[in-house]
Amino acid sequence: MDHLARSRRNQFTAVRLDRVVERRDDPHWVAGSLSNPHTRLVPLWHSRSLLETADEGTLAVYLSPSQLAEPNLIQPPTLLGQDGVRDYFAVSVTDTQKDKILEDHPEASFTDLRRASLDMAAKHAGILAYAKALHYWQHRHTFCGVCGGSNLLRSAGHRMKCGNEECARETFPRIDPAIIVLVVHGDACLLGRNTRYPPRVFSTLAGFVEPGESLEDAVVREVYEEVQVRLSDIRYVSSQPWPFPASAMCGFYAEAVDRSCGTSEEIEETRWYTVEKLTHAVLNDEVVLSSPVSISFRLLADWFRKSGGGDLEALVRSRRR
Ligand SMILES: [Zn+2]
Question: 141 CA to middle of ligand 1, Å?
Answer without folding.
Answer: 11
